Every structure is written in structure tokens, then in C-alpha cells.
Amino acid sequence: MTTDVVLEQVGRLGRITLDRPRALNSLTHGMLLAIEERLTDWASDDGVEAVLLTGAGERGLCAGADIRALHDDAKLGGAGARQFFRDEYRLNLLISRYPKPYVALMDGITMGGGVGLSAHGSVRVVTERSTVAMPETRIGLVPDVGGSRLLAHAPGELGTHLALTAASMGPGDALLCGFADHFVPVAALPGFTAALAEVAPAEALERYAAEAPEAVLSGQREWIDACYAADTVEEILTRLDAVGIAEAKEAAEQIRAKSPTSLKVTLAALRRARAQRTLAETLDQEFRISCAALDAPDLVEGIRAQVVDKDRDPHWSPATLAEVTEHQVAGFFADLGERELGLSR
Fold this sequence. Notes:
By secondary structure, this protein is an alpha/beta fold. It has a single domain (1-345), classed as 2-enoyl-CoA Hydratase, Chain A, domain 1 (Alpha-Beta Complex), CATH 3.90.226. The chain has helices spanning 29-43, 67-75, 79-96, 113-118, 147-152, 158-165, 171-176, 189-196, 201-208, 221-228, 233-242, 246-256, 260-275, 279-295, 297-308, 326-331, and strands spanning 5-10, 13-18, 50-55, 60-62, 102-106, 109-111, 123-126, 131-133, 182-183. This is 3-hydroxyisobutyryl-CoA hydrolase.
């Protein structure tokens, strides 16, 4: 179906290797479909006792979706992008419910769609090279692939901070915020992956897991929780400006560079996700938001500025938080009728 992902069985282990290293293993539609098909087969194959997800090359597991392709499709109406999101979110849910151990090696850059393929697995491993993020507000989108649920359930307001600033987590912070479970040093990865072909993941982890680096965000909880508990993005910025801490000032600057619409929709999405009982509910919500984003101007503009022209000068519309109305935000959560994803039904 595609040559961009290697699917093979090694001993007792089913191996998924994302194989677009020059593109940081960014996801194509064909890759998603191939992975879903093989995971479905392995689920009922008694010869496969566990699954391992890795990325080719040394730069990262996966930088997310192929957003240039999404940009081009969105300009043509977004039909292909909508189908991409539909199949991607279905795969995220399949991974979260997988009946066998699903080991995700989040080595290097793991962002966006890469988080969707890894952070819903049952065994999530980071290394000292791990850089984990949901950076969607940089491109006029909103955290998706179940990421809004992960962020919503991070301790205190850490997830709100990460979502609005699009900040990255190192291994310690990924563990703190619930995106990962175990730390395995890079030097131990060959032994760890070889062991998975012969023994259960718990035994392989017992051999190779180590103590993770310190979580940077743990020492910033006080001002983060106080500032991001506000009900609006405007009030969050007011609190960040007033708290008198350098990191808070930097966070405010990062937030102000993002799409005003994406910021307001992101905050609303995280608050709603906290109350949702299942990942399926959150994925249904994210599908509505992503479809609405395809019809709004900021997604195409954000990808243009970051990836296509690379001028880093997006012209958001509306341009200010004050211009984004509650009615506009509510439109991103509107029921899609027959086009609903429907995972929670």
C-alpha cells in the first residue's frame, strides 16, 4: 500500500517503522491505512505477542502529519484532509484499545500526529533525545489526535500552558504530563528493542529502563497553575504579564504570536475534554474542530508562513483576540450531522 512504513514480524514482535526519515517520518494517508490494516491482522495473530512502533533515522519518531499536503488539499476544499483526519483518529482509538502490548519508542522529535500514534499506546518510552509537543497553534490548528485529552488531564494547568504556547517537553516533562511511562537511555535502545522480540515488555523494561531526567515544569507549577486557571485567553495573558516571572513573560510572548482563533478554540477544547469520559468523545470533538479549521483561513495561512514560504509572518484572520467572538468559537464545535466521526456512538 505504501513504501513509507515498514511492517514486519521479528520473533514474537510486530514491528512498525515509520520510514520517511528525510521528512522526519511525517505521516501520509497511505501510512495510516497500512498501519491500521496490519494492526488489525496482528490483533488476532497468536504469533504476535506485542507491537513496537519506531521511526527510521535518528532525528525522531514522527514530526506529525504531512502538513504541506494538508495545506495544498485545504486550498482545494479539504476533502482529502477530512478523510485523512477521519482515518487518523480512528487509528488513534484503535491504538488506545489495542489488545496486546503496544510499545511506542518516542525517541527524538515526537509531535502532533506522532503523539497520536505513540501516546495512546500501553507502553510509552522516552529517551534523553525526546522532544514531545502538540504545536498545532503555531499553524492555526488546535491540538488533535487525542492530544487535547492528554493535555487536559496533565497535572494542574500544565497542559493548558503547553497547548497555548506550543512548547515542547523533554523526557522528564513528558513523563510528568502523562505522555510517556518509561525512560530508556539511547545507548540501551538496541538491547531494549532486541529483547522485545524475545520477552514481554515488562521484562525488557526491567532490564533497560532507567531514572529519567528531571521534569523542568515541576518547578514552575505555581505560576502556571495560577495564570492558566483563568477562563479566557485574554485573562491568562493579563495574569502572565502581571506575575513578574521571566518564564511567564516569555510564555505570553509565545501565545501572542499564535492564531487568536486557534487559541480561543484550544482553550475551549481543553476545558471540554476535561469533562469527557472517553478518548472517543474527545476524538469526535477534535474531528469537528479540524473540519471547521479547514474552512477557516488561519490553517492555510499558518502552514504557508511556517512551512511553505517560511517567512514566519502569518497574517491571522481575525487578527486579535478581541475580534474572535464566542459565536465563532462555538462554530468549531458544531455537530456535523451525517459527516460526524461517530467514534463515541
